[in-house]
Design goal:
18% of the residues lie in helices and 31% in strands. The protein is an alpha+beta fold. It folds into three domains: 4-74, Roll (Structural Genomics Hypothetical 15.5 Kd Protein In mrcA-pckA Intergenic Region, Chain A); 83-174, Pseudouridine synthase, CATH 3.30.2350; 175-314, Pseudouridine synthase (2-Layer Sandwich), CATH 3.30.2350.10. Strands 6, 7, 8, 9, 10, 11, 12, 13, 14 and 15 form a ten-stranded mixed β-sheet that branches. A five-stranded antiparallel β-sheet has the order 1-2-5-3-4.
Length: 314
């Protein structure tokens, strides 16, 4: 860590003294330099939760620091998850002491929620990793940095400690993680490639859905290119620049080409029976290793149902 550290870490606390060159800086910026093992976004959360003080007083992320200010950061200890570990088979694409990348099957929920308290990816990870998961996202989401929908298949990364979690979360925030999805959409897309850039937020009348908004949403960018065409469908690859909820599903529906099988954003009646949910697969995941900084890329094989559809349609 940089700057002057006033005491060694006591359980989950860090103490620092502000140096002269940091005079006048915002609290969150100052701490991101001092506590460089924690991401700025996580430090902002700690500040907002009242876990950071200046000279014994709670502060805001925008508070300005002064030379010789005494800063104290309290990092909450991870609470032991109450979720039951379950011996569920997982297809592992990459694993080491820091992270694990799984090829998630169709129908598996990522983390427990009402109605899905077992059989989730978290239940499986708790069994496989035996408690070695980051605790930043709480008891129901240990190790989970991002998520993919229940009926979306493919690559998802989980972190085995807070250092890895902060690193991957920062890469997601900075849009440096490579995420390429394969999808089958309704209709023939004429252009070979394109970019969708909109705001995405909660649907104004249906809170379970997301929607493209004219204002008030979050910036969302999806790049796509065509892999194959038929007279009724198009097989595409989408690269996410941002990662909003349901982003690809919303963007392709916005273009008039909803995903095959997506009854939420597309036709209610699917032309292919027994197809549960959207045909969307997180194929490529690329990231910088949290410790070595080596670029690692995984490629999740297409699930059998997806391959069969491609053979039938194209």
């Amino acid at each position: 860590m940089h700057g002057t550290e006033n005491a060694e870490m006591e359980l989950n606390s860090f103490c620092f003294v502000v140096t002269e060159e940091m005079e006048g800086e915002r609290m969150d910026k100052c701490l991101s330099s001092l506590a460089d093992s924690l991401s700025r976004s996580y430090l902002q959360k700690l500040i907002n939760d009242g876990n950071v003080t200046i000279n014994g007083q709670k502060c805001k992320a925008s508070s300005r620091v002064k030379t010789e200010d005494q800063l104290r950061v309290c990092v909450p200890l991870a609470v032991a998850p109450s979720v039951t570990p379950e011996d569920i088979s997982l297809e592992i694409l990459y694993e080491d002491s820091e992270v694990i990348v799984i090829n998630k099957p169709k129908g598996m929920v990522v983390h427990p929620a009402p109605g899905h308290l077992s059989g989730t990816l978290v239940n499986a990870l708790l069994f496989r990793c035996q408690g070695q998961l980051s605790g930043i996202n709480g008891v129901l989401r240990p190790g989970i940095v991002h998520r993919i929908d229940r009926d979306t298949t493919g690559s998802i990364i989980a972190c085995k400690n807070d250092r890895a979690h902060n690193s991957i979360a920062e890469q997601l925030k900075n849009h440096t993680i490579v995420r390429r999805y394969h999808a089958i959409v309704h209709g023939m897309i004429k252009e070979d490639q394109g970019t969708v850039h909109t705001l995405i937020g909660r649907h104004p009348s249906d809170r379970k859905k997301m929607a493209v908004l004219s204002r008030g949403g979050k910036d969302a960018v999806t790049h796509y290119h065509v892999l194959e065409r038929s007279d009724k469908f198009t097989y595409i690859e989408c690269r996410l620049e941002t990662g909003r909820t349901h982003q690809i599903r919303v963007h392709m529906a916005h273009l008039g080409h909803p995903l095959l099988g997506d009854a939420v954003y597309g036709p209610k009646n699917c032309p292919y029976r027994n197809l549960e949910g959207q045909t969307l697969h997180a194929k490529i995941l690329g990231f910088r290793h949290p410790v070595s900084d080596e670029y690692i890329e995984t490629d999740a094989p297409l699930p059998e149902y997806f391959v069969r559809l491609l053979q039938q349609i194209f």
